[in-house]
Write a structure and sequence with these properties.
The complex is a heterodimer of chains A (118) and B (257). Helix content of chain A is 41%, strand content 31%. Chain A has 118 residues and is an alpha/beta fold. Chain A has one domain (7-117): STAS domain (Transcription Regulator spoIIAA, 2-Layer Sandwich), CATH 3.30.750. By secondary structure, chain B is of the alpha+beta class. Classes of the chains: A alpha/beta (118), B alpha+beta (257). Chain A binds chain B through residues 27, 56-61, 64, 67-68, 70-71, 74-75, 86-89, 91-92, 94-98, 100-101, and chain B through 14-15, 20-24, 26-31, 53-58, 63, 65, 132-133, 135, 138-140, 142, 152, 154, 156, 158, 169, 171, 219-220, 222.
Chain lengths: 118, 257
């Protein structure tokens, strides 16, 4: 059964902190998203990857939360990447111009390769 | 509106025939630049037509998150009813001195609204906003290049402690160095007062006269110096030049008759 609210799990893969997101990213997601990002940051990774494979809803407040994470990552000189966005969410990242500042990859493997080579 | 209008719901299918996510109808479609389809009398689309929409990442100044909130205690009204009222009467809730020309199609994803306002020092300003997102309980406006700030304003309503709350949340950066200076020299205060007054007007519409709470966070204290060229699009400067050159345009139009 799909999660209604956001669940976020942090994994370490190839030196990258991967945050697997599941459910909805809206105003109610702030606590889960912030906690996951702080857990990911604790290992001082150069790159944090947000995996959107199981995200089925994002509203404008949710996009603002991602902007907040991006601001934190840039302040700490970390890269924030995104992967597994559906075509619709790629369009949302383009219209909100998040994609100007975040590397967007089609899947997790290409994102990890991208993190290793750039 | 933006160059590409939202598609009807029945056509909203991704390649492969699967339905798009349920938030798809609420977002504006991607468009490279903004297009003004109708310019009401008294408005000017000069700083909107052909401009790109810009978010809080593209500006020059410090990034701020400003939240203004009021509770509609003691009133039996749902968040959806509040947002419906807000969308339908957006212009009426704005404080005096600024004018918001609502799109003919209303507050709907992709629509563009024009604004006439003034900057600190009395400089007249013609600008606008695009409706980035709109659902039953919230809507978000996104600013164009040249606007005093690059960012989003999200208006929402929700249940909080057995009452309906109303909120405006601005995520913004000054668009260029001149605006950053202006915001520091009274612009922030003017803006805070504007949104507090807007929420107070909305609350008063429902018979509530509560204090509007304000919560301000500096999300990113760094200036983005590489964005200093945004001053080229500065709507304040362009609006002033447009006003100064009005007689020349008038003479030219008479001469061409």
């Amino acid at each position: 059964m799909p999660a209604k609210y956001l669940e976020a799990e942090v994994r370490q893969e190839a030196g990258v902190a991967v945050i697997e997101l599941r459910g909805e990213i809206d105003g109610f997601a702030q606590e889960a998203l912030t906690a996951a990002y702080e857990e990911a940051e604790a290992g001082r990774p150069e790159t944090v990857l947000l995996d959107f494979e199981r995200v089925d809803y994002i509203n404008s407040t949710g996009i603002a939360l991602i902007v907040g994470l991006l601001a934190k990552a840039r302040a700490a000189k970390r890269r924030l990447l995104a992967c597994n966005l559906s075509d619709h969410y790629v369009e949302i990242f383009n219209i909100t111009r998040l994609s100007d500042f975040m590397g967007v990859y089609p899947d997790r493997n290409s994102a990890l390769e991208g993190a290793a080579t750039t | 509106m933006t160059e590409e209008a939202p598609r009807p719901e029945e056509e909203r299918k991704e390649e492969g025939g699967t339905r798009e996510p349920r938030d798809a109808a609420y977002w504006a479609r991607y468009a490279e630049t903004l297009k003004v389809s109708d310019v009401p009398e008294g408005a000017a689309g000069i700083n909107v037509e052909g401009r790109r929409a810009v978010g809080p990442l593209q500006g020059f100044g410090k990034m701020w998150q400003k939240t203004y909130r009021v509770r509609l205690g003691g009133v039996a009204v749902t968040p959806a009813e509040v947002i419906k009222t807000w969308k339908e009467n957006y212009t009426e809730f704005w404080p005096e001195g600024n004018r918001f020309y609502a799109p003919l199609a209303g507050i709907a994803p992709g629509e563009v609204a024009l604004i006439s306002g003034s900057l600190p020092g009395g400089v007249k300003l013609s600008t606008g906003v695009m409706v980035l997102y709109a659902d039953d309980e919230s809507f978000t406006l996104m600013t164009p290049q040249g606007h005093p700030f690059s960012g989003w304003i999200t208006f929402s309503s929700f249940e909080e402690d057995d009452a309906t709350a109303v909120q405006a949340q601005v995520l913004m950066r000054a668009n260029d160095p001149l605006y950053e200076m202006g915001l520091r020299m009274g612009g922030h205060k003017m803006e805070d007062e504007m949104w507090r007054q807007t929420l107070a007007n909305l609350a008063a519409h429902f018979g509530v006269h509560e204090r509007v709470e304000t919560h301000i966070i500096c999300v990113d204290p760094k200036l983005q110096w590489k964005e200093y060229r945004n001053v080229w699009h500065n709507a304040g400067i362009r609006s002033a030049l447009y006003s100064v050159t009005a007689p020349l345009r008038w003479r030219r139009s008479r001469g061409s008759r």
